[in-house]
Fold this sequence. Notes:
Helices cover 45% and strands 14% of the residues. The strands form 3 sheets. A 6-stranded parallel beta sheet has the order 3-2-1-4-5-6, sandwiched between helices. A 6-stranded parallel beta sheet has the order 11-10-9-12-13-14. It has helices at residues 10-21, 33-40, 51-57, 68-74, 95-107, 124-135, 155-160, 172-186, 199-230, 234-242, 263-276, 282-295, 297-305, 332-342, 355-364, 378-382, 395-398, 403-408, 423-427, and strands at 2-6, 25-29, 62-65, 77-80, 112-116, 141-145, 165-168, 194-197, 313-317, 346-350, 372-375, 387-390, 413-416, 432-434.
Amino acid sequence: MEVVVAGTGYVGLVTGVCLANMNHNVTCVDIDEEKIKKLNKGISPIYEDGLEELMLKNKDRLTYTTNRKNAYKKADVIFVGVNTPEREDGSANLDYVYNVIDEIIDSLVKDTVVVIKSTVPIQTNDKIDKIFKEKLKNINVSVVSNPEFLAQGTSIKDTLYASRIIVGVEDDYSREIMRELYKPFTEEPYNVPYVEMDRKSAEMVKYASNNFLALKISFINEVANLCGKLGANIENVTKGMSYDKRIGNKFLNAGIGYGGSCFPKDTMALYHLSKELNSEMLTIKSCTEVNKKQTLKLLEYLNNDFKNLDSIKIAILGLTFKPGTDDVRNAASFDNVKILLEKGAVINAYDPVGINNFKKLISVNKLDDSKINYFDNIEDAITGVDAALIMTEWPIIKNFDITKYETLMNEPYVYDGRNCYSLKNVKKTNIKYKSIGR
Length: 438
Ligand code: UGA
């Protein structure tokens, strides 16, 4: 089967490489010449553990090109894996998806299955289906919804050993093609559950899953805030809750909220859709409000201890929205740094891989970077600072010798937004430590 994947971001590239790993011939296409050049040199344009190794392993079955027309023409199946960024009003911007659809329409010469992997608002697959039917009279295109559940940093494992493959199909032809395509994933050693349904439900599975996970995080953060006031410990509370299998122990880590390119966008998109349908989702409205506030939780601590932040030196430890990625989209670090700069603070920023992307984010948002110093090690970043704010639970931050906060900082105020250190170890030092819900 000739498979083409449009878009070489997280979703597209990882999907393409994993399908090649299952012996399919895959052409990855993109409009970005630079990305394709890199890929042809064996370099992944995204930071993702194990991806370059898998690209190398399957190089004979993988082609990277900007020649989309040629690729679409030969394809049996085309995956659409381009991004769907959030518009200012919270709705999903589908321009990239529709550009791909237009290009496919201009290129096709034979019947093809088009699989929508990008996260698109519910009913989009039906709209795309309608466009194909209207514009292509002699060629049959079957549209399939196949949402993605990979998380950045673990995307290879999340794809090969996926929690489930959700396939929204409306006709027998594409049903058979999708079964054949995904067969290797459903067999040993992967054994991924394969679930077929109608397209609209498949679209909703994606949104409901991400929104539910976001809700879990906002809920536990609110409980953590109460624990903090009561003198209870959120880690003991989540441990106690987790014995109930209906609750489980995942996505209950309290902290400074969720970021990234998915939860913030998908919660806004579902909320936006619910309002449009006159069925406003109040749970999601609260979830996003809680998250917004939680992102700035460490500033509350800071403001309690420092009456004036003008010229105060602050270390920001961790810039990415989570560990294992260089992605800084909707990262807590940005919102915090923005406010701190406005208040006149001087920032020492540290991250093991996210500095370049953070610099770009600062520049795109036209923030004055003259008061931000960047460091590639924690020691230098905290030397002489008045406070340290931990934004991302990178292993290197978690394993850091905490006595160094005491010896290197001007004042050892450490505000830990990701509960990186055990309270027992903290008690052995003189650091002035605050974390979330403990
Ligand atoms: C998320 C979902 O986990 C994936 O299943 C989904 O496929 C993906 O979105 C997507 O829609 O493409 P991702 O955004 O990569 O994946 O990151 P997560 O690991 O889910 O983390 C999201 C945010 O939640 C991070 O900022 C993380 O720090 C935060 N988080 C996560 C918590 O604050 N507490 C937790 O217990 C878990």
